Every structure is written in structure tokens, then in C-alpha cells.
Amino acid sequence: MKGHFVLNRAHLSYWLRQLRKDADLIGPLRSTDGDIIFSSIENIHDIELDCPASIPSPKEFIFPQKEEMFRFSDKGVSSKSNGERRVIFGVRSCDISAIALLDRFYGELYEDSFYMDRRRNTVFISIACNTPDPTCFCIGLGTGPFLKSGFDIQLTDLGNRYLVQAGSGEGLKIIRRFRHLFQKPEKTDFDDQYEAMLSSQSGFEKRITLETVRQKIITAKVEDSFWESVALRCFQCGGCVYECPLCTCFNVVDWKEDKDKGVRMRLWDTCMFKGFTKMAGNVLPAEKQIMRTKRWYFHKLLYYPEQFGKFGCVGCGRCTITCPGRIDMAAVANKLD
Amino acid sequence: MKNKNRQNRKGLYLPAKVEILDVVDMTSDVKLFKLERPKSFYYSPGQFLMVSVWGAGEVPISITSTHEIRKDIELCIRKVGAVTSALHSLTAGDYLGIRGPLGNRFPFEEAFGKDILFVAGGIGIAPLRSLINLVSEQKEKFGKIALIYGSRNPSEVLFLDEILRWRDEGIDVYLTVDVKTDPWKYSTGLVTEHLSKQRISFKTCHSYICGPHVMIKAVMRDLSLMGMPAENIITTLEAHMKCGVGKCGHCYTDGKYVCTDGPVFNYTEIKQFGMSNP
Fold it and tell me: For B12, which of A73, A110, A307 is closest by C-beta distance?
């Protein structure tokens, strides 16, 4: 089949080592605290091939938590480009689905140059999820555990080998450059991938469909008392927003380094904070927590589908892991379903 | 073509440096800034700019001048926060950064042949002034034109000379203040108390409203009850903004971005989001 290859497991580290020669190789590592984090890879063997979801999501490599927009001085402004080539390995299907939606958000109408420059220089190698986490619910949203499209390269772990699928021209390029490592797939490889997919699909503990929730909200079947009960449990930590692979909001601040020069930065921001919508003269349009809670859920459940035809949630389960009040997307959906 | 796109992309967040040509004190806390207009910078009434003061930050400010009439750009700015305070310390010859023009504009062609009612409260006169000056240039295209302008007290009335000139040119002007001090020869009371006094045809009239949140809400509701079609009741909204181009999420309300879907909305749209919230 076109765009399909087989990579011997023993050849994976060699291939990654070759890719690292002209790009920054980023992948999942286990931090000293035991968390999974995406980071530049020093030692290929440190890469975690079978691990739970990273915290935070790899979105920080295309939309960093903190980034310089430009420098200013009395002479004017100057901006450097984000042209460094990167290969991000070991990304989950849900995160790839999220990035496909981020591409539309930052790329459509007005193109966000900071995001798109990084995006154009990044190739993702994702691994289909053979063993979903207990917090995962991508299966109900069609954003995983295996993807049919939207990826650059998708690997399926078949034990002693990987089935490799190229989903974009960029992906195909970095396979073709090392074509001697890849073989043509046999029918058994596809059969094994199908087996792996079925086994993964049966491993989901959470079965959530957000469509029922959406229908209930638009037909006004969810009363404010429900949102009030959700809002009551919110600690306003912003964790759900920071960990969400689809939350895109940012703040902009000027940092003065000297009398007449400095840097304009942008940083992740969260609509869970009261001051997020604060206007001139200390007017607070979303003073009550319930308004901010509704805003977040309505954005993801109603307005994302309106604008993009897709939910603003990929079922990665990070808000479930993060929320100290246990009022994450899965919990809300479960209560309303 | 590709290069052109690239330039536009880079321009998205990079402000252009412009010189302040003049600063006029309007009231104790409002100043009118006259800026150099960059080449090929075209704007329409209702649009806004993101204005930068290096080190202080960036804020959305509506344009109060009219492109067809003036060669510069005028911004009417009240000192309310960190950035506007920094702006107020600038004088002629200083530079600031601008991005824009951003947002949509007041639809006014559909008001041709019809009456027009402007309702302004406080500094809400600023974005409307851009449209009033454009409309008053071509008065023959419209029916009756009226303006109700409310201020807290006589010392806070903005653009008084210009308003009196509009009156002399045939616009029905109603000035009102919350608290009367001498000498004040016009009305007192809220703008809503003066709506029914207008001799205009409410059923076909187009109205443009800007002022404090509560005023906009009350005026829109009253005009609608008086029979004005919701599509003809038009306002411009204020919101916290960091980017002005639909990315930062701060002005996002119920599926709409005030910056790119607005800031100009009609009452039908307003009822669907934002202000209809508790």
C-alpha cells in the first residue's frame, strides 16, 4: 500500500539518530519526579516508548508557554524567526488531532506567524496508542487511539517491528531519505495492526460521547444550577487550561530591560481567572466563577463545533489528571450524558 | 504573492511606529491624540487600533477621526489604566506603535433615505464621532439626523464645539448631564429619558449607540420596545483585548470575538451573546 512501510524495531534508534543530525529531536522522557515530559533528546535510549500521557501536552513546542514576540527600542521593533527544524517523536494520536485543529485556529483568517513558523519547521512522528490510560476517552471523539489521517508519520508498535504510515509530504520525505531502513509491508503487518487496534479499542475504561452533552446544552436542558455545582468545585488554578492541548489563549506583556528597550512576550493565559476579561476602569464582565466555567465548556462543546465542525476536546484526559476539584471534561460529560 | 502574504503575516503582531503630531487636553482625564497616518492606511468608522507604548503595553482604542475628512488619525483616550496613563505622558513629537485598522465598521449605507439616531454616553462619543462626521458630510442622503449625548457633568462633555457645529448644520442635538453645574443651558437626566422626544420615524430609523455597558443595554432595549427593528439598533462593544485578531481569546464571548466579529454588533446579535448574560 502506498505510504506504508515496515521498520524493524532494532532500526528505530538508528533512524532517530540520523534525523537528529539536521533537526532538534524531541520526545517523551521520564523526569526525575516520574512525570512524562517532552524534551530535547540527548540519549536516544531515554525515550519512553510506552508511557502515559505527557504533562503538559506537546503543544508547548509550537505554542510555547512563554515566547518572545519582538524586541523594541527607540529605533523600532525587530522580530527573529522561529526557523529551527524539529522532529517531535512519540506524540499520541489525541495530540496529533489537537494540533490539526490548532493549525486551523492559528492559520485561518489571520495567520499567527509565531505558531505557523514553528509548525512549518516541525515534523511529528506519532505512535498509535496500543494501551490507553484509564483517563483516556479519545475513542468516543474519533481523535484516537489510531489515526487514519492528519499525521505526518504514524507508527504502530507490532512488537518486533513498527508499521509506518506516511500521512504528509514532509513525513514521506524523512522516510525516503533513509529508505534502506524500511521494508514493504506484508499482509500480516496490516493484520497485526488491525489486531492491535481492536485490542486498544477494547481497553478503554471511559466511553464518552460529547454529542449528547452538546445537544442537551443547545436545547437548554442543562440548567445553571448544574454549572453552579461545577463552578463551586473550581479552585481557579487554571490547570485544565494549561494542560489542554486545545486551549489557545495568551496574555501579552512588555518587559523593559532598559530605559528605552525591552521585549514584548506572550504567555499562556486562562479564562478561569477573574481578571482575564477585565476591562478599563476595573469592569469585570465574568466576575462569577459560573460564567467562566460555562465559557470554557461552551467554547469547547458548542462553539468549536460551530466554527470548526469538531469538538474543542480530543479526550486526552489531562484535565482529569490535573483538576483538584474533579470537574474535568469527562466528569462533566458523564454527569450530563 | 507568497512574499506579500509573508509580509502580512509578520505585520500581524508587529506595530508600526507613528509620530504623535499633537495632543489636545479635552477634560481632566481625556486627551485627543493626533497621529501621523501611515501610507496606504485606510479605515472606516467603527474600526479600532491596537496602540502600543513600549514597556507599558498595548490597548485597543477606537478611531474617532474620519478617513474621508482628515489626513491624520485621531484617538480620544481617557486615562484609566497603566497603558493609557503612559499614553497620557506622551507629547507631540513622541512615537507610539499602532496595529490596524482592526475590526468591522458601522454599516450605514442601509440607512440611506432613513432617519438616523445617535446615542452617546461619556467617552462613547469617540467611536460615533467618526461616523457622525461622515454622515454630516452627506446629509442629503439621509432623513432626519439626531444625536443624544449624555455626560456625567458639564465639564466632561467632549467635542462640544464640534457638536454645536453639527447642530448649526442641521443635526438635532440633545445634550444632557447627570449632574448639573452652572452654566449649563441644556438638559439633565439619563439619555433614555430623551429617546421618546425625538421627532424621527422609529420604525425605519437606524440608530448607533455607544457608551457605558448599562447605558447601551438600556437604550437598545428601549429603542426595541419603541418599535425600532433589532437589526437597525447598532452598537460597538468594548472588551479586554491582547491581540485584536481573534487569537488571544480575551474578548471571546459566546462564540464571537469582539475584535474580529465586531466591535460593531446589532441588537439581534447582542441578544444572542455577551450582554444577555447575567
Answer: A110
